[in-house]
Amino acid sequence: MLVPYLWHDISMKILITNQSELPIYAQIREQIKEQILNGQLKEGEALPSIRQLAKEIGVSVITTTRAYNDLEQEGFITAMQGKGTIVLSRENDLLREQYLKRMEEGLFTAVKTARMIKMTKEELLEICENLWESEEDKF
């Protein structure tokens, strides 16, 4: 079962599938987290209410509550009285840790691959410097 969900004006998309090894709440959590990390969901954007999201994708309120609670504990979102649930700033410490973790995973893969092809540390650093310079104006 694939359940696409598009929330009004914002670009949040949730796809739920029975083929996933992840439970439904984790699928929701991971997809929202990814959309925050890649910039699809911006700082200050309001997410749908727990009840509305549950209704739209056909899951229980308990399931969406767990996903939102996990995201709040990880520093991605916060529930604000009168404003609903909003995406937190990328500058907060918890979210920064998530970015650092993602970077470490990517760098681990790069170093592992470099070692497999017997690349020197200097060659790898040169690639990093070139990427840094070529990507700088895109952010």
Quick rundown:
53% of the residues lie in helices and 12% in strands. It is mainly alpha-helical and 139 residues long.
Structure write-up:
By secondary structure, the chain is mainly α. It has 2 domains: 85 residues, Arc Repressor Mutant, subunit A; 46 residues, no CATH class. It is 53% helix and 12% strand. The chain contains 5 helices and 4 strands; from the N terminus they run ββαααββαα. Strands 1-2 form a two-stranded antiparallel sheet. A hairpin with a 3-residue loop joins strand 3 and strand 4. The longest helix is centred in the last third of the chain and has 24 residues. The termini are far apart.
Assign the CATH topology of the largest domain.
Arc Repressor Mutant, subunit A
- Rg, Å, rounded: 18 Å
Question: Please, what is the average pLDDT?
Answer: 86
Please trace the helix and strand order, writing H or E for each element.
EEHHHEEHH
Structural class: mainly alpha
List the helices and strands and how they pair.
Blueprint: E1 3-6, E2 13-16, H1 24-37, H2 50-57, H3 61-73, E3 77-80, E4 84-87, H4 93-116, H5 121-135
Antiparallel strand pairs: 1-2, 3-4
Helix pairs in contact: 1-3, 2-3
Keywords:
single chain, 139 residues, mainly alpha, Arc Repressor Mutant, subunit A, 2 domains, two-stranded antiparallel ribbon, 5 helices, 4 strands, 53% helix, elongated, disordered N terminus
